Amino acid sequence: MGIPDLTVVTMTYNRPRFVQRLIGYYERKSQRAVVLDGSNSASISSREQSNLRFVEYLHIPVPYHERLCAAGSLVVTDFVVLCGDDDFMLVEGLESCCQVLREHVEVSSACGIPIFQRRLESGDWHVYPWTSGDPPLDWLRASVNDSTPLLRLRRHFMPYCPTAMYGVMRRDMFTEITSAVSQLTIPNIYREEYLFESVAALVGSIQVVPVAMWIRSNENVSITEREADLDFFDFLASQKSDRAFEEFVGLVHHAARVLNSDVPTDVRELEIAFRALIRSRRTKNDTSVDRSTLRTAIRSAVVRNHKLRTIARAGRDVLQGTFSPSPWVRAGRRLERSGIRCDFAGLREIEALVRDFYFTSIGYRDWE
Fold it and tell me: Is residue 228's pLDDT more than 90?
C-alpha cells in the first residue's frame, strides 16, 4: 500500500517509455503521484489517463521551472518528494522519512540513503549505495542539526550533499519554494536545486534517515551532464554585477522568512553569510592541478577499488553461503551491514521491472 499523506512529483521531457514505466510502478504501489510532462507530445493517451487511479498525469509543454511552479498548486497531501522520471522511490523508505517529519516539527526535510544503478555497455548492471564513489557524496554524515539558521546554512554546504531537494518535505515548504522558483531568472541549471537546499537549511534541520529510499539511475544523460554549467556558487562569484546574487538571496530570504521567523529579518545578514560561504567553497576547491585530469584519475582509482572490493565481498559471501547474483540485493546487503534498513522485496521488484524494461515495452497497463 502507498502512503496516503505523501505525493511523489516527477518532471519529465521526451521520455515516454520511462513515463509509462514510472506510472506502472506507482499505480501498482497504490502511491499518489503527479507527473508533469513537458514533452512535445503526450506520453500516454487520454484513454490511458482516464484509467489511472493513483497517478495524475498532466501534459504541460512548458519549461521545467514553470512545471515545477505548477506542481506547488497540485500537491494536496501533507508531504511531497521529488523523483526523476527514470528513478524509483522505495515506499518503505519514504514512510520512514514521513514519520520523522510527523514526529519532529523542527525538521524541514528528511531523506533516506540512495542506491545508484548504472547500466553498463554489456547490458549488465552496476548497483551500489550512493554513499561514496563517483560522485563522492557522503550521505551518511549529511544531517544538519545546528541550532540557528545561518549555522545550518554553512554546515549544509560545507561539504554539500543534495539531501533536501530529493528528500521528503512538508507541503507548505514545497509550495513556498516553487512559488519563488517562478521568479528565478538566473541562467544556471542548478538554480532550483540550490534554492531548495538553501531554504530548507534555513527553515529547519535536515535529517538523513538510515533507510534505503531512493534508487538513482543513469539510464538517461542528465541535463547537468549535457549542459555542464558552472557550480551555482561559482557561477554567482563569476558575475560582474551583483544582480544574480541579490536576486537569489532575496528569493531565499523571503521564502525562508515566511516559513521560519528565526531567519534574520535583515536580508543583508543573509547576503553576508552567502558571500562568506561562496568564498570558503572557492578557497576549498582551488587547486593548481588540472581539475578534469584529477577527476579522471580519481574516477579510475574508484572503479579499480570498487572491482577489488566487489570480488572480496563476493568471495566472503560465497564462503558464508549468502551470495546473491542480484546487484540490487548485494547493494542492499552492503547497506544492511552498515546498520541501514533496506526493503529487499522492494529492491527485487524494481530489479524485475528494470530488467524487463529492456526486453519489452512496459506501460502501466502491464501491472493491472
Answer: no
